[in-house]
Amino acid sequence: MANSKELLLWCVVLVCISGLTEATEKAPSVQVYSRHPISIGKENVLHCFVEGFHPPKINVTLLKNNVEIPEVKQSDLSFKEDWTFQLLTYVSVVPNGKDEYSCRVSHQALKEPKIMKWEQDY
Ligand SMILES: *[C@@H]1O[C@H](CO)[C@@H](O)[C@H](O)[C@H]1NC(C)=O
């Protein structure tokens, strides 16, 4: 028979780990901005910066007129002292004054995906 003391210890460890994970579940905050001031017809880089989330599993999608933009780039996932994570997703775009861009984030701490529009100020 398995050592019941050992079994009990593992149960305690597992409960602690899952408790910790749950306690630190945090929803991401999302910021959408461009690298350069917007100028119509001029190449720019659209950034979606997501931070303050936990656990690290996250899906970040950039949308152009509500259609997913393929082949976006992503920074390495990094974390801060408080164990929350941050991630930068970006893609080069050429604003034409009509296209609408947004960033969609899904994460387990969000009931439904969060969609942030890129507010283009000319
Ligand atoms: C991310 O997307 C994949 C594939 O669509 C899905 O299986 C997964 O559950 C998503 N993860 C999150 C955190 O939403």
UniProtKB/TrEMBL annotation:
User: Can the keyword Cell inner membrane be found in this entry's annotation?
Assistant: no
Q: Which InterPro entries match?
A: Ig-like_dom, Ig-like_dom_sf, Ig-like_fold, Ig/MHC_CS, Ig_C1-set, MHC/Immunoglobulin
The segment(s) forming the Ig-like domain are 28-116
Which protein is depicted? Beta-2-microglobulin
- Residues of the signal sequence? 1-23
Q: Which lineage do the record's taxonomy fields give for this organism?
A: Eukaryota, Metazoa, Chordata, Craniata, Vertebrata
Q: Which UniProt keywords apply?
A: Immunity, Immunoglobulin domain, MHC I, Secreted, Signal
Q: Which GO terms describe its biological process?
A: antigen processing and presentation of peptide antigen via MHC class I; response to metal ion
Q: Where in the cell is it found?
A: Secreted
Cellular component terms (Gene Ontology): extracellular region; MHC class I protein complex
Write down the Gene3D superfamilies for this protein, in alphabetical order. Answer: Immunoglobulins
What family does the entry list? Belongs to the beta-2-microglobulin family.
A Pfam family name for this chain?
C1-set
Asked if the record carries the keyword Secreted, the reply is yes
Q: Which gene encodes it?
A: B2M
UniProt main location, coarse? secreted
